[in-house]
Amino acid sequence: MRTDLKKFGVRALAAAAAILLSTGAAFAQAAAAAPKIDSGDTAWMITSSALVLLMTIPGLGLFYAGMVRKKNMLATMAQSFGATCIITVLWMVIGYSIAFTPNADANTNQWIGGFGHIFLKQMGLNAINPLAPTIPESVYMFFQMTFAIITPALIAGALADRMKFSAFMWFMSLWLILVYCPIAHWVWGGGWLGTMGAMDYAGGSVVHLNAGTAGLVTCLVLGKRVGYGSENMAPYNVLFSVIGASLLWVGWFGFNAGSAVHADWNAGMAAAATQIATAAAAMGWMVSEWIISRKPSVLGMISGAVAGLVAITPASGFVDPMGALIIGIAAGVVCYVASVWVKRLLGYDDALDTWGVHGVGGALGAILTGAFASSKIQPTYPNGGWLLDGNVHQMVVQFYDVAAVFIYCAVVTFIILKVIDIVIGLRVSRDVEVEGLDINLHGEMVQG
Questions:
Q1: DSSP annotation of 68
Q2: What is the pLDDT of residue 8?
Q3: Domain count of the fold of the chain
Q4: How many angstroms separate the Cα of 214 from the Cα of each of 157, 161, 417?
Q5: Can you give the CATH number for the domain in which 210 is found?
Q6: What pLDDT, on a 0 to 100 scale, did the predictor assign at position 122?
Q7: CA neighbours within 13 Å on the CB side: how many for 347?
Q8: Measured on CA atoms in the order 144, 145, 148, 149, is the torsion positive or negative?
Q9: Does residue 15 lie in a domain region?
Q10: Looking at the domain assignment, is residue 448 inside a domain?
Q11: pLDDT higher for 144 or 1?
């Protein structure tokens, strides 16, 4: 009897141990399967989001406001501030959902995201987006929101001095939903360009080519400013523009290094590439201007720096320091020619060179990414680019990306502008434009 009890006890202990082991293994598997929030990544991404927001207000606002005439400075600042407000709300309501959440229909998902996150109703405290599994989805949504804010705001440089504020706010709203969100989904949200293999680390085509193209179309639809070519339209306060450009330069590290979505070596390389390309582009523009005009202007230096920031944006996480240097020099020279000589030759009134810097710089950077991308820098793209890894096909993909974004953006932007013009009108009256937008649209003016 005692022997039987002993055997029973041993069997019971063995069964209990087996149950505990299997339960422990199940818990371990569940823990391994569950996404783990990384506090370092989260802290870095919140910081990056704040840096990118700094780029729009006050960075872009000061950069643009310093380059217009005194009578339009507040109106220009109001555009950056107003865009930040309306786009924040729209991103929360619908923008994030259609840009960065999957569509249940696999075919439709190649073109537009789903509607499951409208009003962010699915975003709970523990929500995770598969595109950024080590940070809370609220942080990823916020980071992408800051990109969505600055992209339409960049267009304001092309329409400066002559668009109604009401028309501007409608334009920002419609352009975000109909142009930015679909293109962001195509490249970053699981859409067809990303699936094809388009390389755009932080927004060469999604942000800069997109905004630059819209700026070019907008200034052509609006027409030239009153007095363009005959009146002095020199910047009122270049110092404001220098401060704004400096804030853009610092904020851009959140833009590019933040796009790693991790606080890791790739973020570090993106930051280094950004600094190198920006300085090289400023030098490229400065030397070009020095040779042709005999004087290196401060406005030229900061324009060159922004051109370098733009061009390195799509490449920052894919290229080595030498690639960044070459892209920067090319951006400084090419964007100088586009912003000064090509614009003068063709005669269009892109007030603050949105197309010449952002459109041309974004396209140039996107194409050169296909040339200088290195599989040693970004192992997730094992084929690299043309010059370093011999992947000629990547150049074809990059050209396709540039062409698709340019054509879609140009066509839809034109339609949006024409609809707004029919409904409420795009441009202020001649008298308002001559007297100034500050006092007429906002009831205020810069003193002193």
A1: S
A2: 41
A3: 1
A4: 11, 17, 10
A5: 1.10.3430.10
A6: 85
A7: 3
A8: negative
A9: no
A10: no
A11: 144
Mean pLDDT for 247-270 is 97
The b-or-e profile of 289-309 (16+ CB within 10 A means b, else e) is beeeeeebeebbbbbbbbbbb
Angstrom CA distances, 122 to 93, 97, 101, 216, 376, stand at 12, 10, 11, 38, 38
Other residues' Cβ atoms within 10 Å of the Cβ of residue 12: 10
How does residue 125 score in pLDDT terms, banded at 50, 70 and 90? Answer: confident
Domain range for 96: 37-442
Amino acid identity, position 383: N
Q: Which residue intervals of 66-162 are DSSP H helices?
A: 73-90, 96-100, 106-109, 137-154
Cα 58 to Cα 62, 72, 155, 353, distances in angstroms? 6, 16, 16, 19
The partner residues of 163 in beta bridges, in order of sequence, read 427
* Residue 71 DSSP class: G
Q: Is the pLDDT of residue 70 over 70?
A: yes
pLDDT higher than threshold 60 for residue 11:
no
User: Distance between CA atoms of 448 and 445, rounded to whole angstroms?
Assistant: 10
Dist CA 448 CA 435 (whole Å):
17
Cβ-Cβ contacts under 8 Å for 55 (sequence gap 6 or more): 146, 150, 247, 248, 251, 252, 254, 255
Residue 21 domain-assigned (yes or no)? no
- 431 in any annotated domain: yes
